[in-house]
């Protein structure tokens, strides 16, 4: 008998028929003797519909109240699923975020889980209930409803799995698992059977979008095996687990491509102590997330400073940069929105040299110019012109031996 | 400075434009210096839509889970109103039922309020917030979401008003107030300016449907003046208040008509002790509410026993009655669905004789045969054939001097 937490995304619960199919799957596992916790997202499209309703009421809806509104989406799905399971003769019980003991900080719209007291869920499980939890939501110290941000149901599921010491947390979605790269870009992309938390984190950050990043963080922290799989078939998907010896054979596990970045360069900035703080302080104050930062020292006590921000933040970041440039005496501000960031990710990089060389060579052979480079322990990213993005992904996929037979 | 609780029904908040108009009204009172609590129903049609969704999931949806589902309706309106008020620059805050401290028993679908701790609302008011409360909902001892039944938002509003010792509880609806009778039946119906809780209770029970009955009970118990008025104009509506000396001048305040009753008669029942229990015990066990009970003793130790139940309960009640009739040896069971109950209601009845005589005479003059009669301290009801209902209402309205000039 295992304790399984299953999370189903919006497309898997888009209507009563699909909710019913999810119920079939849950019942099957329950009948096989497993204790089942089901975490649900809002029905596909509902969250967007609620946001549009809020925008009819106010151009910038108050964040606390928007959370109260959005939380109804998952509440609806959880209640419907419990109704369905009970009508089929099973003991079932819905839990809203706060009822499942999900306690968050007070950051509406992107609250962080502080702790979980899933005792009520545990008790219901022990009484033979199938527990249905509304994902994406929690409550703060004041008892105010909060939401965990897009993809937050993943984090709800992993957090509950951690609290209950579940054997596995299954993330059901509309794809078969995590792929070596985006199959829409590269026909030879293959499903990955096992991947480490670290690699998954890099994949998620860089745009694979299968899992909310924080859910992977959480799973890693509490060592909860994640199984990312399709709700439309019975195939195994991708296991996201602790780094293990057999994984290291693959040097590179996946290639990602992020089209959402923009580049801003301050040219000929006086190279003085404190100059970076003068530039990045105001950006941080404006809550603009800076991704890559690259500084090239020029001769003559000047430097070029380049950084990337998301497309959403571009206009504000550019405005701030131009003001700062004037203040510190930079020559000019250059910017580009037509860029892409391609990355290769793999635990094996730690022990294998030559990954960077292979990457640069593969891009050079396609005549793709690299604008910026950044690296982490298990990732190398290159910024290139957006128009070369797909070509670059396919070239790297082949160069690192990831191409499948299909 | 007054503390006002305002409740708006579904048609008053049917879309963002109407919610915005409600906000105008609330803001106006707030600007005038009043402390404002706004209790909202779900947008018109939403509750029905949710019920139909639940019925797609199960023929008889589980009641606990249905409450979780239905509660999203009021949650949505409350959040939207708070978003709107805040976007206009006012301090506002939404409260779900449990956040407003509405504590109920554990009867899903028609929970009763056990007590209210509106301290959070009080505190927010004192900080200058407009408080927006999701009507219709509360939470029980387990922290489970409950709902208060159709019209439950009225009761939410009155209960909060009682807890906050509000100066007035205003019930905004789509009619101008309480009328002497249904204006759709009698063109000469007039709006009543003041009516006692007792009369309003009789009016509500008998089908005036302006206020949930329990809300009037609550208001009476805590002596909260109710103001029933239209959300579509600024006119005063009907004040529902404690019985006072000046009210007694009107002998009859209103005429009601209930088309939802059916009649069942057991003929020639042996007139023995305990026979009533044998008949009404099984009906009570089946949770069938019996309204009128009339027993006519015949000669020869037999009696005819007649009672009325709602149309919804008719089939089950008839089935039970036929089984019991066989058991106790009654001659036959007669029934009728084409009946109406017309009633005259007035505090003045207590001190004036002749009301019954006037009523019977008015019906007789129209050749309307009375099938059953029942009375309370401030009400006389006659069951007649349904086809005479409108005629009877108009005749009684005129006979008791209620006709207006319009």
TrEMBL record, chains A, B:
What Enzyme Commission number(s) apply to this enzyme?
2.7.2.4
Q: What class of enzyme is it?
A: transferase
Q: Which Gene3D superfamilies does the record match to this protein?
A: Acetylglutamate kinase-like, VC0802-like
Listed under catalytic activity are: L-aspartate + ATP = 4-phospho-L-aspartate + ADP
Which Pfam families does UniProt cross-reference here? Answer: AA_kinase, ACT_9
Residues reported in the UniProt entry to bind substrate:
47, 74
Please give a single GO biological process term from the UniProt record.
homoserine biosynthetic process
The organism's superkingdom is given as Bacteria
Cite the entry's keywords alphabetically.
Answer: Amino-acid biosynthesis, ATP-binding, Kinase, Lysine biosynthesis, Nucleotide-binding, Transferase
Q: To which protein family does this belong?
A: Belongs to the aspartokinase family.
Q: What is this protein called?
A: Aspartokinase
| Gene name linked to the record | lysC
């Amino acid at each position: 008998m295992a304790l399984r937490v299953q999370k189903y995304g919006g497309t898997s619960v888009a209507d009563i028929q699909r909710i019913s199919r999810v119920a079939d799957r849950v019942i099957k596992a329950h009948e096989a003797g497993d204790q089942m916790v089901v975490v649900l997202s809002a029905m596909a499209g509902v969250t967007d519909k609620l946001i549009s309703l809020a925008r009819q009421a106010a151009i910038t809806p108050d964040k606390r109240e928007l959370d109260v509104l959005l939380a109804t989406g998952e509440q609806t799905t959880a209640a419907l699923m419990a109704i369905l399971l009970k009508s089929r003769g099973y003991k079932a019980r819905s839990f809203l975020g706060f009822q499942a003991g999900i306690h968050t900080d007070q950051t509406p719209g992107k609250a962080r889980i502080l702790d979980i007291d899933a005792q009520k869920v545990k008790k219901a499980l022990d009484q033979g209930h199938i527990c249905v939890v509304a994902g994406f939501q929690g409550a703060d110290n004041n008892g105010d409803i909060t939401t965990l941000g897009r993809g937050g149901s993943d984090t709800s599921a992993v957090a509950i799995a951690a609290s209950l010491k579940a054997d596995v947390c299954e993330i059901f979605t509309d794809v078969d698992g995590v792929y070596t790269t985006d199959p829409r870009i590269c026909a030879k992309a293959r499903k990955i059977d096992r991947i480490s938390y670290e690699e998954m984190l890099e994949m998620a950050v860089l745009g694979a979008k299968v899992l909310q990043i924080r859910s992977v963080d959480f799973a890693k922290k509490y060592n909860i095996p994640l199984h990312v799989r399709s709700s439309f078939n019975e195939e195994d998907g991708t296991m996201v687990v602790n780094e293990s010896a057999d994984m290291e054979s693959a040097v590179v596990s996946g290639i990602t491509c992020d089209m959402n970045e923009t580049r801003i360069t301050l040219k000929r900035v006086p190279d003085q102590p404190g100059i970076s703080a003068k530039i990045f302080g105001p950006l941080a104050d404006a809550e603009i997330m800076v991704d890559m930062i690259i500084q090239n020292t020029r001769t003559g006590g000047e430097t070029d400073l380049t950084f990337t921000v998301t497309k959403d933040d571009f206009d504000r970041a550019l405005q701030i940069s131009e003001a700062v440039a004037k203040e510190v005496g930079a020559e000019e501000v250059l910017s580009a929105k037509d860029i892409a960031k391609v990355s290769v990710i793999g635990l094996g990089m730690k022990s294998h040299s030559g990954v960077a060389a292979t990457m640069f060579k593969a891009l050079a052979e396609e005549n793709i110019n690299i604008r910026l480079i950044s690296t982490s322990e298990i990732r190398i990213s290159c910024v290139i012109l957006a128009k070369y993005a797909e070509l670059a992904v396919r070239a790297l996929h082949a160069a690192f031996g990831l191409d499948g037979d299909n």
